[in-house]
Design a protein that fits this description.
Layout: H1 2-35, H2 40-54, H3 58-68, H4 72-84, H5 91-104, H6 107-120, H7 126-137, H8 140-155, H9 161-179, H10 185-199, H11 205-218, H12 221-230, H13 236-245, H14 253-269, H15 271-280, H16 284-297, H17 301-308, H18 319-375
Length: 376
């Protein structure tokens, strides 16, 4: 019976050891992810480790896809990520990326995209953003957007309140930019990017909903309607003043912070990196996290966002699911230690019982010999 109990304890050691070997890697990874959940840079590194282990050609395939899609900047970001990870890429592929980047940054291409941004107010790269910024810094672009959306509002047509609010905020911030000799330019650039992302359908649904609520708070609708009724792009100074009066600057703190964070992303990743961020962000906190990620990862940020999406910024898997792995590992470890303890106790008990029986047998033998001697 005692050997059966020892065997059961040994079986427990074997079973718990087997389970621990399989659970511990997941638990270690879960623990690292939970520890890094407030650090987007560290969190993205951990998730990239897992992703790249699963597919050796992941970066190369994404570079090919980026080149095929005409996005040389994204392809360059993947090359930077591969270089940082010591992943070897084919020389011809790297050469193609370099050639595409040179073409994208050429004077002809830049001038064409600048004009597009200035005229249409839409931006998807550095050149077109420069054109859009030029228009917005002279308030022409913002006035155009406010007049258009304001007239829609006045006539009861579908109104994009996000563009309306951002354009009104842009007019107010532009005035501050002039008075502060460019000190508010980062906010101005960020608001322009958010507005452009909305206009081209690249503003995340959650962030768009938040921006819409914020826009309603910062714009005095009746006053804006009056301003729009008499406003014109041909009278920018007069129109801007009237629109600015309808803007409640005291309630624009959240929009201003968003503009600053978007600019922080753009400074490290470029315009398209900022657009990628706005597309996946569900709120201003996501943009703030993306700014921290961009400051840590620089040019690799676009590649990271492409591979991981919003999970690069925060835990996509619930903390509870990760905690289950830690709890499972702790429980398995407890079972292993308990089995070792039980085995040690039972083996010790069996050894003590054997010594006791041997000792009793020796005493009985000596007693029998003594009794035989007395009889003799």
């Amino acid at each position: 019976m005692k050997w059966l109990r020892i065997g059961a304890a040994l079986t427990g050691i074997a079973a718990c050891s087997f389970m621990l070997v399989h659970v511990m890697p997941h638990a270690r990874e879960a623990g690292a992810v939970l520890a890094a959940q407030d650090d987007p840079a560290a969190l993205s590194e951990l998730k990239l480790d897992v992703l790249l282990r699963q597919n050796d050609h992941l970066l190369q395939d994404n570079i090919e896809a980026a080149l095929a899609g005409g996005d040389a900047d994204l392809a360059s970001s993947f090359v930077a990520l591969a270089r940082e990870r010591d992943i070897t890429l084919p020389d011809d592929l790297v050469s193609r990326v370099n050639d595409a980047v040179k073409e994208e940054n050429s004077t002809t291409h830049f001038a064409k995209r600048f004009a597009t941004g200035l005229i249409t107010g839409n931006a998807d790269d550095v050149a077109s953003l420069s054109g859009t910024m030029a228009g917005d810094l002279f308030v022409i672009g913002d006035i155009r957007d406010v007049v258009r959306e304001g007239k829609h509002l006045a006539t009861g047509e579908d109104t994009d309140r996000v563009v309306l609010g951002l354009a009104a905020a842009g007019i107010a911030v532009t005035a501050v930019t002039y008075m502060s000799a460019g000190g508010a330019s980062p906010v101005r650039a960020g608001l322009t990017l958010v507005k452009d992302a909305r206009k081209v359908g690249r503003l995340g649904e959650g962030l768009a909903a938040w921006a819409g609520r914020s826009a309603r708070e910062v714009v005095d609708t009746p006053m804006l309607q009056n301003a729009v009724a008499t406003g014109s792009v041909l009278r920018p100074g007069e129109t801007a003043g009237a629109i600015k009066a309808a803007f409640r600057a005291e309630k624009a703190g959240a929009l201003v912070r968003l503009g600053k964070d978007v600019t922080r992303v753009a400074e490290k990743t470029g315009t398209r990196g900022a657009m990628d961020t706005l597309r996946i962000a569900e709120g201003p906190k996501d943009v703030a996290r993306a700014a921290r990620l961009a400051e840590a990862q620089g040019g690799k940020t676009r590649a990271i966002l492409k591979l991981l999406g919003r999970s690069a910024l925060l835990l996509a898997t619930g903390a509870f699911d990760l905690a289950i792995w830690l709890f499972g590992a702790a429980l398995t470890l407890f079972g292993l230690l308990s089995s070792i303890k039980a085995t040690a106790e039972r083996v010790t008990q069996a050894w003590c019982d054997r010594r006791r029986r041997r000792h009793q047998a020796e005493i009985a033998a000596r007693a029998a010999m003594a009794g035989a001697a007395l009889k003799a």
